Amino acid sequence: MWAGRGIFSAQTMGEPMNQTSMLESALANFHRAADRLQKEFPLDVLDIIGRPRERSEIMLAPRLSNGRVCAFQAFVVHHCSALGPCKGGIRMSPSVTLDDVTALAMEMTWKCALIGVPFGGGKSGIVADPATLSAIDKQTIVRSFTRNAHRHIHPLVYVPAPDMGTGETDMGHIKDAISFSLGYAATQGSYVTGKPVILGGIPGRREATGLGVAVAVTQAMKSLGRKTAGATAIVQGFGNVGSVAARALAESGFRIVGVSDQYQAVYSEAGLEVRALLAHVSQHGSLQGISLGRQVPHATLLEMACDVLVPAATGGQITVANADAIQAQIIAEGANGPTTPAADDILQKRGVFIIPDILCNAGGVFVSYLEYTQETQAAQMTEGEVRSRLEQRMRERFLAVHDASRERGVTMREAAMYLAVKTVCTAFIARGTLP
Ligand code: NAD
Questions:
Q1: Which of helix, strand or coil describes residue 397?
Q2: Distance 166 CA to ligand 1 centre (A)
Q3: Has this prediction a pTM greater than 0.85?
Q4: Which of 163, 207, 296, 309 for mutating ligand 1's site (highest number of atoms within 8 Å of CB)?
Q5: Residue 93 alpha carbon to ligand 1 centre in Å
Q6: pLDDT of 364-398, one tens digit each?
Q7: Distance 172 CA to ligand 1 centre (A)
Q8: Which of 77, 114, 119, 164 gets mutated to test ligand 1 (max ligand atoms within 8 A of its CB)?
Q9: Residue 123 known to be catalytic
Q10: By alpha-carbon position, which residue is closest to atom 17 of ligand 1?
């Protein structure tokens, strides 16, 4: 068994998994892959690529519209740049921690390697609640983050993107803040992806992660010999990823029987009209007050009858506390780290097919890569081109992971991690080691 070393090697497997942090889960997944790769790569290399290169905690002190200077904690983590500049979104949440950001940066390293883009893994966090901020205060905080984290952000160092609590408007403000500080009308090269199309963004980026989830699910159904038409799905989280995945799955013939956001969870055996859900959210900002389906407790929704469960909210949602009760036969991880390693073991024993996050939600970073290359080459791609390249890449990588999982007799997560960590180790060794 891989023993690892130092602070990033804590063995957490014996702890109650409903208390497992995202970092403990990410490390446990890495240790399992490292264990398999010990015969192929030196331990030193595995040890080093398992550690974050840089973890920074930054204090923001913007003056908000109430006239007061308020302190906000922010974090930037560069996990590994063996394959290229670090890539990863900015999470704005009242509960995000430096360890969460470290876990998410680490997962980005594996995700970029697996989906085949020349990026390393990075991530940022801002401890603030976007739901309680006015648009102008949110912009002030995002601009403050950009000023204070500027030294970390560069097309050849770390390129942020949206994550939970941030979106394309925020990326536009980051681009503007950086251009302004450099004294240019625009920046050369891509400092940030997921921007509005009018500011050099790429058509289809906003939808890319959710569409990629739907492509992975339909390919899984095909590979497992199941029919999509009439199959049922529950989607947890109705933001960027979940709402787009729900719409795309409905368009592929799925009956969406349950959805939730942090305010409300609804279920209907007959199926929920996704267009009506989207219209409600666009009018009211959330699912709160929706009259479709019947209201159910949030935790219950995950355990209700369906063929496919798409956790697309936040980490640590599927734990030892509910893994036995989940009825879905396929879990498509739209969110990062939604399943703890102990829950993973239970689901695996029960024969549940899990499409792991580093594969399932990699469509976003793949299209971010297209945006990055479009901007660095001053080219333009159409939405049709973006969509067809996204679908092709998701299918190819799904099949590569599925083949590896069958050949090696391991789960999809183990196969995905094996392929990803192997790619990063190979790049690390090819670069050589500085004295
Ligand atoms: P978002 O902020 O747009 O949406 C999050 C949604 O989850 C909201 O509807 C929110 O109300 C809901 N939610 C939060 N806690 C919940 C809970 N306990 N139960 C039910 N719903 C809850 O965020 P997003 O961009 O859609 O990201 C969702 C997940 O997908 C995150 O884990 C993120 O890291 C991951 N992800 C996002 C992208 C991307 O391109 N946006 C790419 C890869 C992975």
A1: helix
A2: 10
A3: yes
A4: 163
A5: 11
A6: 999 999 999 998 888 889 999 999 999 999 999 99
A7: 20
A8: 164
A9: yes
A10: 262
Give the pLDDT confidence score for residue 262 in this predicted structure: 94
Tally of CA atoms within 13 A in the half-sphere of 415 that contains its CB: 21
Residue among 39, 87, 111, 123 flagged as catalytic: 123
Q: For residues 195 and 177, give the distance between their C-alpha atoms in angstroms, rounded to a whole number.
A: 13
Distance CA 77, CA 285 (A): 31
Residues 6 or more apart from 351 whose CB is under 8 A from it?
Answer: 329
Q: Look up residue 125 and give its DSSP letter.
A: E
Q: Whole-angstrom Cα distance, residue 41 to residue 175?
A: 40
Q: What is the CA radius of gyration of the chain?
A: 21
86's CB contacts (< 8 A; 6+ apart) are 78, 79, 80, 105, 108, 119, 120, 121, 122, 157, 158, 159
Q: Which two tokens stand for residue 46?
A: 């595995």
Structure-token pair, residue 305: 């009858």
Residue 162 Cβ contacting ligand 1 at under 6 Å: yes
Give the residue among 139, 157, 137, 135 at the shortest CA–CA distance from 147: 139
Res 183: pLDDT: 87
The neighbouring-strand residues paired with 355 are 332
Alpha-carbon distance 431 to 426, whole Å? 9
Going from the Cα of 336 to the center of ligand 1, the distance in angstroms, rounded, reads 9
Ligand 1, residues 87, 107, 170, 241: which to mutate, most atoms within 8 A of Cβ?
A: 241
pLDDT digits (tens, 9 = 90+) for 139-155: 999 999 999 999 999 99
Alpha carbons 59 and 74: distance in angstroms, whole number: 6
